[in-house]
Specification:
It is a single chain. By secondary structure, the protein is an alpha+beta fold. It has one domain. It is built from 4 helices and 3 strands, in the order ααβββαα. A 3-stranded antiparallel β-sheet has the order 1-2-3, covered by helices on one side. Strand 1 and strand 2 form a beta hairpin. Helix 2 packs across helix 4. The mean pLDDT is about 95.
């Protein structure tokens, strides 16, 4: 499988610190598994009308970045976007990766000097916390089922 998310080239240096997701060792493993889990429901509500299986990472950034933090540790940062929104990504052990960068097509984002994101602040929004919990639970189910087959 080929990967196009930001930081994929060095993501093999990042290793899971949580083993609650069988088969996920690197961010590439997580990305591959998430392709089976991301869906319209996990997409942020304001973008759901644009979500398609052809662009599965659309509107998935915060919940994906915080789930990656659960698995790999590190920090979640946010690229400031229009209208006060932020695009979340991960920084672990000196490596930056953004599992949902493909939603921007060829647009370049700056992954330097951005503010750290607070899980508590993001999850104050009930719908976001519920989407995160759904994504986490579905990813775990997918990983367990993949190990059993």
């Amino acid at each position: 499988m080929s990967y196009n998310f930001y930081g994929w080239e060095n993501s093999g240096h990042v290793r899971a610190v949580s083993h609650g997701f069988p088969g996920i060792i690197t961010p590439c493993d997580m990305y591959t598994a998430l392709l089976h889990v991301w869906c319209e429901y996990t997409c942020t509500p304001r973008l759901r009308h644009e979500w398609t299986p052809d662009n599965p990472t659309l509107g998935q950034c915060a919940i994906t970045a915080f789930l990656a933090q659960d698995i790999f540790g590190g920090h979640v940062y946010g690229v400031p976007l229009e209208a006060g929104n932020v695009h979340c990504y991960n920084f672990v052990d000196g490596y930056t990766f953004d599992l949902t960068s493909e939603q921007f097509g060829g647009e370049s984002l700056s992954y330097f000097g951005n503010p750290e994101q607070s899980r508590a602040a993001h999850f104050m929004r009930t719908e976001k916390r519920e989407r995160y919990e759904y994504l986490r639970d579905e990813l775990r189910k997918h990983c367990v089922q993949s190990q059993e087959s």
